[in-house]
Design goal:
Elements: H1 8-12, E1 17-18, H2 23-29, H3 40-46, H4 48-60, E2 65-67, H5 77-92, E3 99-104, H6 107-111, H7 125-141, E4 146-152, H8 155-165, E5 172-176, E6 178-179, E7 182-183, H9 189-197, E8 202-208, H10 215-226, E9 230-233, E10 239-241, E11 246-248, H11 258-264, E12 266-269, H12 277-287
Parallel strand pairs: 1-12, 2-3, 3-4, 4-5, 5-8, 8-9, 9-12
Antiparallel strand pairs: 6-7, 10-11
Helix pairs in contact: 3-4, 4-5, 5-7, 7-8, 8-9, 9-10
Length: 295
C-alpha cells in the first residue's frame, strides 16, 4: 500500500522522520477552490486528482509521511476511504520510504468557524467520542499506517479520541494546537501530554498548527511527560482570522531551530498551514544531508 518497509514507530526509534506540509495551501497553489465548510474535503470530493497531485508534490520534496485530506470530512466512509487511497497511491509511487497518516481533525474543524482554536465546544466527552467514532472506524478500515489525531485544542477532546482508540490496536500520534505554552483551551501542557503517556496506542505526541515559537518548549514538555517520540509541525507563524476567512502573516517570520527541536525529543517534524513543498524540501536537506528533496 505504501513504500514503508516497517512500522512508523520502529523508524522513530532510529531517526527523525519528515512530515509533509500544509495541504490547503498546496491545493490553493494548484488553483483549487477551497471555499465552503468542507475546505480540503471539497477538493477530495470534487477533484481527487488534485489531492493526489498535492501529495505527490510533497513526496517529491522529500516528505516521508503524507497526511490525508480527511481533516474536515464528516463520517462519510466513501470519502474517508478515498483520502487514504490517494495518499497511499502517492506513497506507492515514491522512490523512498513513505507512510500514510489518516487525519482525524477536531470537532471544531467541522464547524468551520475557528472553533478548533478555542476548544471547549460544550459537548461532553462521551458525546465527542460518539461523534468521532464512525470517522475513526472508517479511516482505520481503509488501512493507513497511522492515525494523526491533530490540531486538538483541549484535553476533553483528547480524552474522547483516545477512548475511541482504546483496545483497538491502532497506532496514532496525538498533537495539540497550543498558544502561550498551554492548549488553546488554556490547560497546562503537562496535563495534556499525560494523556498520551498513558495510552499504548499513541506512538508520538506533540504540537501542530501553532506558531513556530511555541514548538521548542512544547516539545520539551511532551518529551519529559510522555517519554515517547515527539511530533512537531507548526504553521509559518500566520494567524487564522475565522471571521474574515483569511490568514494574517507575521511581520517577521519566527526561525525554525530544528536542531534544537530534535535535541529536545522531536522525531516527527514537518509543516502545517502555509508551509509548502519548498520549505519541506529544505527540511529534507537539513535532516538528511545529501538529499535532493525528490522522491
Amino acid at each position: 500500500m505504501s513504500r514503508a518497509s516497517g512500522p512508523l514507530a520502529a523508524a522513530l526509534a532510529r531517526r527523525t522522520v519528515l512530515l509533509d506540509g500544509g495541504l490547503s495551501n498546496q491545493l490553493e497553489n494548484q488553483g483549487c477552490d477551497l471555499s465552503g465548510g468542507r475546505w480540503t474535503g471539497r477538493v477530495l470530493e470534487e477533484a481527487p486528482e488534485e489531492v493526489l497531485a498535492a501529495h505527490t508534490a510533497y513526496v517529491r520534496s522529500g516528505a516521508e509521511v503524507l497526511i490525508t485530506a480527511s481533516y474536515q470530512v464528516p463520517a462519510e466512509p466513501g470519502l474517508l476511504h478515498r483520502s487514504v487511497a490517494l495518499a497511499a497511491r502517492a506513497a506507492g509511487a515514491a522512490a523512498h520510504e513513505v507512510w500514510v497518516a489518516a487525519s482525524v481533525g477536531p470537532y471544531g474543524a467541522l464547524l468551520a468557524d475557528g472553533s478548533e482554536y478555542r476548544g471547549r465546544y460544550g459537548l461532553s466527552r462521551p458525546a465527542l467520542a460518539a461523534w468521532h467514532r464512525p470517522r475513526i472506524e472508517a479511516l482505520l478500515a481503509a488501512g493507513p499506517d497511522v492515525l494523526a489525531l491533530e490540531t486538538v485544542p483541549d484535553t476533553d477532546e483528547a480524552e474522547a479520541l483516545l477512548s475511541v482508540l482504546a483496545g483497538t490496536g491502532a497506532r496514532a500520534w496525538l498533537s495539540y494546537t497550543v498558544e502561550g505554552g498551554r492548549t488553546r483551551a488554556g490547560q497546562p501542557l503537562d496535563e495534556a501530554f499525560a494523556l498520551a503517556a498513558e495510552a499504548p496506542e499513541v506512538i508520538a505526541a506533540g504540537v501542530n498548527c501553532c506558531d513556530p515559537a511555541e514548538v521548542l518548549p512544547a516539545v520539551a514538555r511532551a518529551s519529559a511527560t510522555t517519554g515517547k517520540p515527539v511530533v512537531a509541525y507548526p504553521n509559518d507563524g500566520s494567524v487564522w482570522d475565522a471571521g474574515a476567512g483569511l490568514w494574517h502573516p507575521p511581520d517577521t517570520p519566527a526561525p525554525w531551530p530544528v536542531a534544537a527541536w530534535q535535541d529536545a525529543g522531536a522525531r516527527l517534524i514537518g509543516g502545517c498551514c502555509r508551509v509548502g513543498p519548498a520549505p519541506i524540501a529544505g527540511l529534507a536537506r537539513s535532516l538528511r544531508p545529501g538529499s535532493q528533496g525528490v522522491g
